[in-house]
Fold these 2 entries.
Entry 1:
Amino acid sequence: MVKFDLFFKLLTEHNVKYVVVGGLAASAQGSSYLTEDIDICYARDKENLLRLAEALQLLHPALRGAPAGLPFRLDFSTLRAGLNFTLTTDYGDIDLLGEVAGLGMYDEVVKFSEELEVFGVTCRVLTLEGLIVAKRVAGRAKDLRVLPELEALLELRRSRKE
Amino acid sequence: MASNRSGLTEELEQLIRQSPVLQRAVEEGVDLTLLIERLSLSPTERLIRHQEALAVFEEFRRAGQRKRGEI
């Protein structure tokens, strides 16, 4: 069972720099689509990799889809050597993205994000505008499917402000 | 708020008439009433609903697996 609340509290406690992206960001912005995993785009500076590794090690991460028993240790070196990781953890499936297609690395992604208060902690979450750009660029069927809804949400939100 | 036979409020029908984006969304099968309801919630409330819905899906998935003798 996914535990969104515990996951975000953990990252906050470890001062990890990240932006919630993907389906969960869409959900936080009002989308009705359900996703089972948590996608985050993380900053790749040394301090952040150390903090992220320290936090995630508490969740017994394993590579999703890898053969059982395959040795895997998510530490600073592993994070530095890779970019994107698909993990299964005690709190559910988590995707770590070093880069988001159409937006870029963390420093660019953060410009398309906003702070939201979720489960008592402050998280940076991709905006509807950022989600729409990323989904358009990704261009897979599953991305294009949610576009009409995201665009409608943006329109409804704007109409409320007028 | 009063709704008509299509289940939409007059206010929402007017919005749809004025917006090609909303018209396209309706044509694509997006339930705008669901979105309006979700926009009325806080981000935390939205994620709690998401988490609860996933738990229900998981329960049904397991029920199917039990029925098929997979677990």
Entry 2:
Amino acid sequence: MKAVGIAGLGMVAPGIESWEIGSKLLMSDSPYDISVELPALKPSSLSANERRRTTDTIKLALQCAQDAMLDQSMVQASDPDLTSVFASSSGDLNIVDKILTALILPGKPVSPTQFHNSVHNAPAGYWSIATGSRAATTSIAAGDETFSIGLLEAMSQVVVDEHPVLLIAYDLVPPPVFLSQKQITASIAVAMLLVPEPTRYSLSAGIKDRGATATTMYDAGFEQLRQANPAAQCLPLLQSIAQMQSATISLPYQHGQGLELRLQCND
Amino acid sequence: MNQKIAITASTVTTALGTGLSANREALKQSRTGLQKNGFAGVEFDTYIGQVDGVDDVILPEELADFDCRNNRLAELGLQQDGIFEAIEDLKVRYGAKRIGLFIGTSTSGIQQTEMAYAARASETGELPAWFNYETTHDIFSPVAYLSKRLGLYGPAQVISTACSSSARVFAAAARHIEAGLCDAAIVGGVDSLCQMTLYGFNALQLVSKKPCCPADVDRDGINIGEAAGFVLLETGHQEDALSLLGVGESSDAWHMSSPHPEGAGAVQAMRQALDRAGLAPSQIDYINLHGTATPANDLAEDRAMMTVFAGNNPCSSTKGFTGHTLGAAGIVGAVFSCIAIEDNLLPVSLNTRRVDDRIQSNIILDSVSVKNTQVDIVMSNSFGFGGSNASLVIGWAL
């Protein structure tokens, strides 16, 4: 598959409210502290009224999406040819918990708003409403390899249809009742605006058959974050981008294979 | 989509029956699969499109961890029409690593978690020991199951865009093939009845107490159904092969659970599918409508249909046969489109007695009027919550 350009990045994680802050932390030598709180989620792309009706998962994804679209010089969020890929391994288990709890109460009082917010593509729906764009959005899941699969989906759209694509990968910590079942122990969202033409960065991808070992993080805190959430598996890629360093990075991929990414920094 | 992709095998399992022949016979005879609601734990009046025999399906022993209603339905679907053998043959021809797997679902095996919540320990609130989230409820579960069941090692994803999920799988598969990530693909949809969707749609006042009647003046909501279906896609020009000619995808950018009143997003999806197929609206012989039978959907879709087709082309919703199968609706529409073409069969808009005056499309009300129609190219519409739209164009490759 042809290389794509990276034209914007977004990041929301514990102690990180934007790519601007995240990239500084990824460049610095000081240790990252995963135990700090997730920043307040207040995506300005949603009206106050809509924000009240949405969930933390939706807000997390949208805040990160708009962070990647801050620089409007190349692509704007409302561009009719900007499609988007929302990739999340577990969707919104907090809202699932509320609905399933209602289902064991007398009369089963499921909230209609909670129900329509429970669809896996709720963040994508709110994003299209926020941007006013009728461009296609897709919402996918691929277990622990959701980031890698989301990236390939986004890259295939850029290469085949030759238009920009916004990838947003996110997972929120599930409610306690699910924690023994789904080990997502820190919340994170990352976004990448991918374009057909080369930018300061070009990215290409290939599938490695066997013996691929995922690239890890030197910093213990960031390594903890990498392992705490399927969406955080891209941290080694984000670090190389932050450091403006050409690199070959291996991400976990399906069936014991590896996704080999080649990041080329063009200066 | 810049190349034609052949549809080399297909199967579908709905409330009409397991496999193609049960479904095509029911479509031909205008016989519904809807029945009065008797689904466990659902205590209100409605009709549902339940697949018979799902409870009796036993997954292979080594995959018993995946046992849930949704994966049983997937397994039941896989046992029809020689699709399992066709996939084995596909593996021989392309190699297991070069076959992509793209499955749409809205709720995966969430019924398992519903049962686990009902069995939570009263003191600690802990979920029961038998419960396994990742192999059942997790949105990726149907693909995790099918990958293992079929021994596939190509790119694999679940698409979950509500009721357009298993139409969009065609677009993702076509792109993956064109980008060189795989040479062939299995696309499909599996969505099963559960309390969450029945009570959720009921809370939104979108569920009908009677058999749903798309486009009818008295329509008042959907009947929820379940289904599993699979289609094999291969590259290379194949003479006389049914092919995916075009796909269109769009967003409404309007509301989470109501369609754009003029169907603006639907227009965009239908026109994109036509453009990519290189076809004029007049070349479409039949449109399988999304046609859920809610007042708002059918009206908005009709506005969109009038904008694109001006009321000329015969069309119908088949929700009166199967109910609305949600995340599987796209694959049901796609396979019904294949049946329409192969059999020159235009399904009637079942249960529609008097068309709403405001609906002006050419809705098929009786099979006699369309008996001798030649059907070569069909469009199938799927629209979902979040304003997620997809239109497919399927026909004989030229």
